[in-house]
Amino acid sequence: MIESGLLNVQSVSRRRAGRSAVxxxxxxxxxxxxxxxxxxxxxxxxxxxAMLAGALRPESGRIDLGGRDFVSQPDIARRLVGWLxxxxxxxxxxxxxxxxxxxxxLRGMTRAQARQAADGxxxxxxxxxxxxxxxxxxxxxxxxxxxxxxxxxxxxxxLILDEPANALxxxxxxxxxxxxxxxxxxxxxxxxxxxxxxxxxxxxxxVVILHEGRLRYDAPLSREGDGASLEHHFFSIATGAAA
Length: 243
Ligand SMILES: Nc1ncnc2c1ncn2[C@@H]1O[C@H](COP(=O)(O)OP(=O)(O)OP(=O)(O)O)[C@@H](O)[C@H]1O
Hints:
Belongs to the ABC transporter superfamily. By secondary structure, the chain is of the alpha/beta class. The chain has helices at about 45-50, 75-80, 95-105, 110-125, 140-150, 170-185, 195-205, 225-240, and strands at about 5-15, 20-30, 35-40, 60-65, 70, 80-85, 160, 190-195, 205-210, 215-220.
Protein backbone atom coordinates (compact mmCIF):
# COMPACT_ATOMS: atom_id res chain seq x y z
CA MET A 1 0.00 0.00 0.00
CA ILE A 2 1.90 3.06 -1.20
CA GLU A 3 0.18 6.41 -0.74
CA SER A 4 1.11 10.06 -0.46
CA GLY A 5 4.44 11.30 0.92
CA LEU A 6 4.99 10.90 4.65
CA LEU A 7 8.55 12.13 5.01
CA ASN A 8 10.22 14.92 3.08
CA VAL A 9 13.88 15.69 3.67
CA GLN A 10 15.00 18.89 1.95
CA SER A 11 18.63 20.01 1.67
CA VAL A 12 19.60 18.77 5.12
CA SER A 13 23.19 19.23 6.28
CA ARG A 14 25.02 18.44 9.48
CA ARG A 15 28.67 18.59 10.52
CA ARG A 16 30.23 16.42 13.20
CA ALA A 17 33.46 17.32 14.95
CA GLY A 18 33.81 20.24 12.52
CA ARG A 19 33.59 18.09 9.39
CA SER A 20 30.69 17.59 7.02
CA ALA A 21 28.87 14.34 7.88
CA VAL A 22 25.69 14.90 5.82
CA UNK A 23 25.53 17.50 3.05
CA UNK A 24 22.54 18.86 1.16
CA UNK A 25 20.56 15.64 1.52
CA UNK A 26 17.09 15.48 -0.04
CA UNK A 27 14.75 12.54 -0.43
CA UNK A 28 11.17 11.64 0.36
CA UNK A 29 9.39 8.56 1.58
CA UNK A 30 5.81 7.36 1.17
CA UNK A 31 3.59 5.53 3.59
CA UNK A 32 3.89 1.80 3.02
CA UNK A 33 7.38 2.12 1.54
CA UNK A 34 10.52 0.36 2.79
CA UNK A 35 13.70 2.27 2.01
CA UNK A 36 17.15 0.69 2.19
CA UNK A 37 19.89 3.14 3.23
CA UNK A 38 23.33 2.06 2.11
CA UNK A 39 26.84 3.49 2.19
CA UNK A 40 30.37 2.61 3.24
CA UNK A 41 31.56 3.20 6.81
CA UNK A 42 31.40 6.89 7.63
CA UNK A 43 29.08 7.68 4.68
CA UNK A 44 26.62 9.50 6.97
CA UNK A 45 23.88 6.89 7.48
CA UNK A 46 23.72 6.97 11.29
CA UNK A 47 23.92 10.78 11.30
CA UNK A 48 20.99 10.87 8.88
CA UNK A 49 18.97 8.43 10.96
CA ALA A 50 19.66 10.32 14.19
CA MET A 51 18.31 13.50 12.54
CA LEU A 52 15.22 11.65 11.31
CA ALA A 53 14.66 10.26 14.80
CA GLY A 54 14.79 13.75 16.29
CA ALA A 55 17.95 12.98 18.27
CA LEU A 56 20.25 15.30 16.29
CA ARG A 57 19.34 18.70 14.86
CA PRO A 58 20.17 19.46 11.24
CA GLU A 59 22.26 22.64 10.87
CA SER A 60 20.34 23.56 7.75
CA GLY A 61 17.51 22.23 5.65
CA ARG A 62 14.05 21.06 6.50
CA ILE A 63 12.42 17.79 7.51
CA ASP A 64 8.63 17.40 7.23
CA LEU A 65 6.80 14.42 8.65
CA GLY A 66 3.11 14.10 7.83
CA GLY A 67 3.22 17.65 6.49
CA ARG A 68 4.57 19.17 9.71
CA ASP A 69 7.97 20.76 10.27
CA PHE A 70 9.67 18.23 12.42
CA VAL A 71 12.82 20.13 13.36
CA SER A 72 11.02 22.94 15.18
CA GLN A 73 8.44 20.54 16.74
CA PRO A 74 10.37 17.74 18.50
CA ASP A 75 7.14 16.27 19.87
CA ILE A 76 6.34 15.00 16.36
CA ALA A 77 9.37 12.72 16.40
CA ARG A 78 8.58 11.45 19.89
CA ARG A 79 5.11 10.31 18.89
CA LEU A 80 5.48 9.35 15.24
CA VAL A 81 8.96 7.86 14.94
CA GLY A 82 10.30 4.57 16.28
CA TRP A 83 14.10 4.20 16.21
CA LEU A 84 16.32 1.21 16.73
CA UNK A 85 19.82 2.75 16.89
CA UNK A 86 22.94 0.71 16.19
CA UNK A 87 23.33 -0.07 19.89
CA UNK A 88 19.88 -0.27 21.44
CA UNK A 89 19.83 1.90 24.61
CA UNK A 90 18.61 -0.47 27.34
CA UNK A 91 18.64 -0.27 31.15
CA UNK A 92 20.22 -3.44 32.59
CA UNK A 93 18.10 -3.32 35.75
CA UNK A 94 14.71 -3.10 33.99
CA UNK A 95 12.82 -6.13 32.72
CA UNK A 96 11.77 -6.64 29.10
CA UNK A 97 8.17 -5.73 29.95
CA UNK A 98 9.21 -2.66 31.95
CA UNK A 99 11.20 -1.43 28.95
CA UNK A 100 8.21 -1.69 26.67
CA UNK A 101 5.84 0.06 29.06
CA UNK A 102 8.43 2.82 29.69
CA UNK A 103 9.03 3.36 25.95
CA UNK A 104 5.29 3.44 25.23
CA UNK A 105 4.77 5.99 28.05
CA LEU A 106 7.64 8.12 26.69
CA ARG A 107 5.86 8.07 23.34
CA GLY A 108 2.77 9.60 24.90
CA MET A 109 0.59 6.58 25.72
CA THR A 110 -1.47 6.30 28.91
CA ARG A 111 -0.51 3.56 31.38
CA ALA A 112 -3.37 1.32 30.19
CA GLN A 113 -2.51 1.88 26.52
CA ALA A 114 1.16 1.22 27.25
CA ARG A 115 0.39 -2.12 28.93
CA GLN A 116 -1.81 -3.19 26.05
CA ALA A 117 0.77 -2.12 23.48
CA ALA A 118 3.52 -3.95 25.41
CA ASP A 119 1.46 -7.15 25.44
CA GLY A 120 0.88 -6.86 21.69
CA UNK A 121 4.53 -6.41 20.79
CA UNK A 122 5.68 -9.11 23.25
CA UNK A 123 3.37 -11.56 21.50
CA UNK A 124 4.31 -10.44 17.97
CA UNK A 125 8.06 -10.67 18.57
CA UNK A 126 7.74 -13.90 20.59
CA UNK A 127 9.25 -12.27 23.65
CA UNK A 128 6.49 -13.37 26.03
CA UNK A 129 8.68 -15.97 27.76
CA UNK A 130 11.26 -13.25 28.48
CA UNK A 131 8.86 -10.60 29.76
CA UNK A 132 10.19 -10.65 33.35
CA UNK A 133 13.85 -11.16 32.40
CA UNK A 134 16.17 -8.23 33.20
CA UNK A 135 17.75 -6.62 30.13
CA UNK A 136 21.18 -6.97 31.77
CA UNK A 137 21.05 -10.78 31.46
CA UNK A 138 19.69 -11.03 27.92
CA UNK A 139 21.78 -12.53 25.13
CA UNK A 140 22.95 -10.15 22.39
CA UNK A 141 20.26 -11.34 19.98
CA UNK A 142 17.59 -11.04 22.68
CA UNK A 143 18.76 -7.50 23.42
CA UNK A 144 18.45 -6.67 19.74
CA UNK A 145 14.88 -8.06 19.65
CA UNK A 146 14.02 -6.00 22.73
CA UNK A 147 15.45 -2.89 21.02
CA UNK A 148 13.25 -3.64 18.01
CA UNK A 149 10.24 -4.13 20.29
CA UNK A 150 10.90 -0.74 21.93
CA UNK A 151 11.00 0.90 18.48
CA UNK A 152 7.72 -0.76 17.49
CA UNK A 153 5.68 -0.49 20.67
CA UNK A 154 3.78 2.70 19.72
CA UNK A 155 3.16 1.54 16.11
CA UNK A 156 5.13 4.50 14.68
CA UNK A 157 4.31 6.06 11.32
CA UNK A 158 8.04 6.09 10.55
CA LEU A 159 10.15 3.14 11.69
CA ILE A 160 13.93 3.62 11.56
CA LEU A 161 16.13 0.55 11.88
CA ASP A 162 19.93 0.82 12.05
CA GLU A 163 21.51 -2.60 11.42
CA PRO A 164 18.49 -4.42 12.91
CA ALA A 165 19.75 -7.90 11.98
CA ASN A 166 22.88 -7.52 14.16
CA ALA A 167 23.31 -10.60 16.36
CA LEU A 168 20.06 -12.20 15.15
CA UNK A 169 20.02 -15.89 14.25
CA UNK A 170 18.71 -16.90 10.80
CA UNK A 171 15.23 -17.68 12.17
CA UNK A 172 15.01 -14.23 13.75
CA UNK A 173 16.32 -12.57 10.57
CA UNK A 174 13.36 -14.16 8.77
CA UNK A 175 10.99 -12.90 11.49
CA UNK A 176 12.49 -9.42 11.23
CA UNK A 177 11.81 -9.34 7.48
CA UNK A 178 8.19 -10.33 8.13
CA UNK A 179 7.77 -7.64 10.78
CA UNK A 180 9.18 -4.98 8.43
CA UNK A 181 6.81 -5.96 5.61
CA UNK A 182 3.88 -6.13 8.06
CA UNK A 183 4.55 -2.60 9.31
CA UNK A 184 4.74 -1.36 5.71
CA UNK A 185 1.49 -3.17 4.82
CA UNK A 186 -0.11 -1.42 7.81
CA UNK A 187 0.87 1.95 6.28
CA UNK A 188 4.11 2.78 8.08
CA UNK A 189 7.20 3.95 6.24
CA UNK A 190 10.36 2.04 7.12
CA UNK A 191 14.03 3.01 6.72
CA UNK A 192 16.48 0.15 6.98
CA UNK A 193 20.19 0.95 7.22
CA UNK A 194 22.43 -2.06 6.74
CA UNK A 195 25.68 -3.28 5.23
CA UNK A 196 24.01 -6.51 4.13
CA UNK A 197 22.89 -5.95 0.53
CA UNK A 198 20.87 -9.20 0.60
CA UNK A 199 18.71 -7.75 3.40
CA UNK A 200 17.93 -4.74 1.23
CA UNK A 201 17.07 -6.89 -1.77
CA UNK A 202 14.85 -9.08 0.45
CA UNK A 203 12.67 -6.36 1.98
CA UNK A 204 13.14 -2.93 0.42
CA UNK A 205 11.11 -1.15 -2.26
CA UNK A 206 13.71 1.52 -2.84
CA VAL A 207 17.38 2.17 -2.20
CA VAL A 208 19.32 5.30 -1.33
CA ILE A 209 23.11 5.19 -1.35
CA LEU A 210 25.07 7.86 0.53
CA HIS A 211 28.72 8.59 -0.06
CA GLU A 212 30.74 11.16 1.87
CA GLY A 213 27.49 12.52 3.28
CA ARG A 214 25.86 13.08 -0.11
CA LEU A 215 23.06 11.24 -1.84
CA ARG A 216 24.54 9.39 -4.79
CA TYR A 217 21.77 6.98 -5.78
CA ASP A 218 18.00 6.86 -5.24
CA ALA A 219 16.04 4.26 -7.21
CA PRO A 220 13.26 1.68 -6.86
CA LEU A 221 14.11 -1.96 -6.34
CA SER A 222 12.12 -5.02 -7.28
CA ARG A 223 12.69 -7.89 -4.91
CA GLU A 224 13.48 -10.34 -7.70
CA GLY A 225 16.77 -10.30 -9.52
CA ASP A 226 18.10 -6.87 -8.53
CA GLY A 227 20.89 -8.12 -6.26
CA ALA A 228 23.65 -8.01 -8.89
CA SER A 229 22.61 -4.59 -10.14
CA LEU A 230 22.50 -3.16 -6.61
CA GLU A 231 25.92 -4.61 -5.85
CA HIS A 232 27.25 -3.01 -9.04
CA HIS A 233 25.88 0.44 -8.12
CA PHE A 234 27.14 0.14 -4.56
CA PHE A 235 30.70 -0.79 -5.53
CA SER A 236 30.85 1.79 -8.31
CA ILE A 237 29.96 4.53 -5.83
CA ALA A 238 32.14 3.15 -3.04
CA THR A 239 35.22 2.92 -5.25
CA GLY A 240 34.62 6.23 -7.01
CA ALA A 241 33.97 4.59 -10.38
CA ALA A 242 30.56 6.27 -10.53
CA ALA A 243 31.90 9.76 -9.78
N1 LIG B 1 29.69 11.43 17.63
C1 LIG B 1 30.47 11.83 16.64
N2 LIG B 1 31.45 12.74 16.84
C2 LIG B 1 32.24 13.16 15.84
N3 LIG B 1 32.16 12.71 14.59
C3 LIG B 1 31.22 11.79 14.33
C4 LIG B 1 30.34 11.29 15.33
N4 LIG B 1 29.52 10.38 14.76
C5 LIG B 1 29.86 10.31 13.46
N5 LIG B 1 30.89 11.16 13.20
C6 LIG B 1 31.53 11.35 11.90
O1 LIG B 1 30.53 11.69 10.95
C7 LIG B 1 30.75 11.01 9.72
C8 LIG B 1 29.54 10.17 9.36
O2 LIG B 1 29.42 9.11 10.32
P1 LIG B 1 28.15 8.17 10.44
O3 LIG B 1 28.26 7.46 11.75
O4 LIG B 1 26.93 8.96 10.18
O5 LIG B 1 28.42 7.18 9.22
P2 LIG B 1 27.77 5.75 8.91
O6 LIG B 1 27.47 5.76 7.45
O7 LIG B 1 26.65 5.47 9.84
O8 LIG B 1 29.00 4.79 9.18
P3 LIG B 1 29.06 3.24 9.68
O9 LIG B 1 28.63 2.42 8.51
O10 LIG B 1 30.52 3.06 9.99
O11 LIG B 1 28.17 3.10 10.88
C9 LIG B 1 32.02 10.21 9.88
O12 LIG B 1 33.08 10.96 9.33
C10 LIG B 1 32.19 10.08 11.37
O13 LIG B 1 33.54 10.02 11.73
